[in-house]
């Protein structure tokens, strides 16, 4: 059997990203509309409006022609216009633009921009009048002719409401998509069970927290979801693994084994964490031998020599515990052998229900051969410690190796044996 290992590089799945974008399409639409409406209201009612008025004139000199642009906006003209209109000449200088025709040097365009359409019109006319009155003699001009007279323009040139609204709408669309993409890439952890189900395409069988009373209900809920799971409706054996390096799966396996003892007369929990056994933290077992020992000795009929048995306080049902036993270098060699399959076949004859606590794929690949000897596998996901990409890789890895996944169990806190 070939086992595929994790790739160290973080990959972005374009299909998952698109799904995430379409999942939030309502939010994108709302943000887009709000941004567009906001920029429209600001442009229409808050930003000051500016109006322009312009005129074209022709300046005919008596002798040689020159560039009169600076004279049209010079101090003499601006002081005269400011005096007539009661405006500071320095403000006028910023609001008047004079352009000389590139093809006919005698033609000039004068544009005035203010926050009053009539004032802009008057500024243009006063500039022409002041230039003609004050500068004609000094510059030796023959005439100043108006080619296109100034008009009162009641349509503001700024702000451009349509342009701003379009830009605000586009900014809302692009910005909302950017936030979703950013969260997809950098938001490492799951927010809730619904997100887990959507992201991993797996049912959440239960949610475990530090609240003891709530957990009693949740463990019964998990037991029911296992016993009546549509993927394996008559499951008699399961294994639990964590999506990342954590002892949460062991704690849940321990609690589940006690819940299953309520309506199963003989339950077995097996510690398959060969390299780092956690089960002893939950059971005060005195037997040193365990799983590895019985597999090496192959005396399955003497399994009772390798287990501790606890009786229930509420009934006569029994809970048996088999620890990992001695540590060996490559436990996967034993766990993927026919010996382990025969061992499991024998245990299924002796016990009503079997729960196997397995290490995560980050720790080892032991879960893969073990999962092929049980009816289903459950992945424990910590909301605060399991990154999305790790959980995704775990699910993909198990599915590639034809593991029957019953669902996930989530934990919201670091679990302890209390």
Explain what this protein looks like in three dimensions.
- With 418 residues, the chain is an alpha/beta fold.
- It has helices at residues 14-23, 25-46, 69-72, 75-85, 89-95, 117-139, 161-186, 193-200, 212-227, 248-263, 291-297, 331-335, 338-350, 367-371, 388-400, and strands spanning 51-61, 96-100, 107-114, 141-148, 204-208, 237-242, 266-271, 308-311, 318-322, 353-357, 376-382, 405-411.
- The strands form 2 sheets. The chain has an 8-stranded mixed β-sheet, sandwiched between helices.
- A hairpin with a 6-residue loop joins strand 2 (96-100) and strand 3 (107-114).
- It is rod-shaped.
What tags apply to this protein structure?
rod-shaped, 418 residues, disordered N terminus, 8-stranded mixed β-sheet, 15 helices, 4-stranded antiparallel β-sheet
- Can you summarize the main beta sheet? 8 strands, mixed
Structural class: alpha/beta
Please tell me how large the radius of gyration is. 41 Å
User: How much helical structure, as a percent, in the residues?
Assistant: 40-55%
Question: What percent of residues are in strands?
Answer: 15-25%
| First-last Cα distance | 40 Å
Which regions are unreliable across 5 or more consecutive residues at pLDDT < 50? 1-9
Secondary-structure element order, as H and E?
A: HHEHHHEEHEHHEHEHEHEEHHEHEHE
Mean pLDDT: 89
